[in-house]
User: What shape does this take?
Amino acid sequence: MARDSRIDTIRGFAMVTIIINHFSFLSAELGMTGPQIPTATTVSLSSAAEIFVALSGYMVGMVYVNKPNATALLFVRATKLYAWNFALFIAAVLSTFATNQQFNAATNFTPLTTAPLQAAAYFSVLTYGPFILNVLHLYVTLLLISPVAVWLIRRSPLILVATSMTVYLAFQVFVRIYPELGGSPNPLEKSAWSLHPLAWQVIFFVAMAGGSVRLHDRVFALLEKQRWIFWASLALFALIGTLKIVLDLPRIPLADHGTLGPARAAHAILVVLLYAGVVTVLRNHLDSLILRSAALIGRHSLNAFLFSTVATFIGLYIWQQLGLGWLGYIAITITSVLATWAAAKYWDKRKFAKTSRSGSINGIPLGARV
Assistant: This one.
């Protein structure tokens, strides 16, 4: 059977949202005034990062669990991502020769100028990262733990779910009794750990368990038969967004970002369900330009994330140096999305050429379901 492009489309939605969110946040930190490009995050309790992490875990569960050499493959993948992230770190260090204090503060590059050796040391052990690079740190950490998750899944996916949920709930209880547990593990961070692995692991590993049993097949089938689930999800999402805008709460209880509060985690599940409903309702239109483009980016979401990280920092530097204002923010954001799409198109063509020569993808014959 052909590959189900709906998962890739959802990943593409998340990736485009991440690109827009990152540039919107950073430009606002540097003084951009005017309305931001709206995304699901604009009226959410959660962000696209949760979806990115969850779908990354899901794909690990779907692709690696049944491979006899899963541990070696996961280690190789983690090592490659670590190397790419370190390359980005070196590029960030070099960029500080051209950036200013305001830029460095917004991107958390400041430690690279005030304590470069410490920053490099903490970065090396995955406990410090500039803005955006910290997401990749989290992913590397979770990949390194994944062999244990694979071992648990092979006994029962429910064992992994129970273990992950137990760690998450215990952390949520203790971090509220001892808030210092959510603090940064190094003195370079401004405040709390931006993505605490004891909290964020839950969406990665629970999703990984789901991927190992191809849960999406059942979810999409259910949404096909029970369309009301999508409409109910949309109504709840709209209600939460309306309340957030009307009440304008400075801080929403149990929706902390760094410690992935329960309200935030639950809302992330709602958004995933909403996206799954969208691609189910629009299943007959998946070949349209917009949805096909989203799926293209989603097929290469990790490469797209790395590419968009560089594009975001370069775009931000240009925007600040030239004082481009709100129109410049719009133009650079759109350009970053289009550049990421163009890069994904190149990766897709290169991958197709490679698989055409070999006749398979990772040993799976062309045309087989992935």
User: Anything to note?
Assistant: The two ends are 8 Å apart (CA to CA). Strands lie at 360-361, 364-365. DSSP finds 15 helices and two strands in the chain. The CA atoms of residues 231 and 277 lie 8 Å apart.
